Amino acid sequence: MAPNPLHLLEPRDCALLLIDQQAGLAFGVGSIDRQVLMNSVVALAKTATVFGLPVVASTSATKVYSGPLMPAVKAALPGVEPIDRRSMSMWEDDKARAAVLATGRSRLIVSGLLTEACVTFAVLSALSAGLEVYVVGDACGGLTTASHELALGRMQAAGARLTSWIQVLLEMQRDWTRHETYDGARAIVESHAGGYGIGLAYARDMIRPA
C-alpha cells in the first residue's frame, strides 16, 4: 500500500521493529538515562498496540549475555513473541527478516539497542530492501552520546527518517476527535509524556465544559 499523500505516518502503512530491548545490552547504554529510555520504549510499544501496528521483536544472545526481552516491554506487547537469533544484524537472520517483510507494511518504525550496531545494521539493510524507515531516536540507546549521534547521522544520511516516540503517537492520532484511539493514546500521553501528560490529566479532571 502506498504511503498517504501528506507523507504523514498512518497506522495502515507502518510496522514496529524492536531490536534487542534486553537488560544485558541496556547495562551498556550511556547515551541516555536508562529510565528515560525505558519510558520511551514502553510508550512506543503501547502506541503500536493502540494503533494496531504489527510488531516484530527480535532478541540476541538471550542465554549467554543479553537476557530476555525486558519485562516492561513484553508487558506492553501482549501476544508478541520475540525472535531470537545469533547474528548481530537481525536482517541477516532469515526468520526475523521474513517476519518484517511478512507484515506487508511499507514503513518500518525502529527502536533498539545498541544504536551503533544492531539498530544501524538492520536499518541500513531495510533501506536497501526498499522500505521507508523511521528511527525513534529516544527509544534507541548507544554506548556513548557521541557514538549514538554518529550512528543516527549515518542512518539519516542513508535515507532513514529520525523521530521520537511522542511524534509517532501524535502523528498517528493527529485529531483528538478520532474516538477509536482517543482513550488509548491519551492514556499513553498521561503516563509517559511528562509535563504534557500532566496537562492533559489536568484538563480532563479540572476543566469542565459549560
Structure description:
With 210 residues, the protein is of the alpha/beta class. The protein has one domain: 3-Layer(aba) Sandwich (Rossmann fold), CATH 3.40.50. Helices cover 47% and strands 17% of the residues. It has nine helices and six strands, in the order βααβαβαβαβαβααα. Strands 3-2-1-4-5-6 form a six-stranded parallel β-sheet, with helices on both faces. Helix 2 runs parallel beside helix 7 and helix 8 packs across helix 9. The longest helix is centred in the N-terminal third of the chain and has 17 residues. The radius of gyration is 17 Å and the shape is globular. The protein starts with 13 loop residues before the first strand and ends with a helix. The model has no long low-confidence stretch (mean pLDDT 95). It comes from Bradyrhizobium diazoefficiens (strain JCM 10833 / BCRC 13528 / IAM 13628 / NBRC 14792 / USDA 110). It holds the Pfam family Isochorismatase. InterPro entries: Hydrolase_YcaC-like, Isochorismatase-like_dom, Isochorismatase-like_sf. This is Blr6961 protein.
Characterize this entry briefly:
The protein is of the alpha/beta class and 210 residues long. It is built from 9 helices and 6 strands, in the order E-H-H-E-H-E-H-E-H-E-H-E-H-H-H. Residues 14-166 form the Isochorismatase-like domain.
Strand order of the largest sheet: 3-2-1-4-5-6
Number of helices: 9
CATH class: Alpha Beta
Structural class: alpha/beta
User: Roughly how many Å is the radius of gyration?
Assistant: 17 Å
The level of helicity is 40-55%
- Per CATH, the superfamily is Isochorismatase-like
The main pleated sheet reads as: 6 strands, parallel
- DSSP strand tally: 6
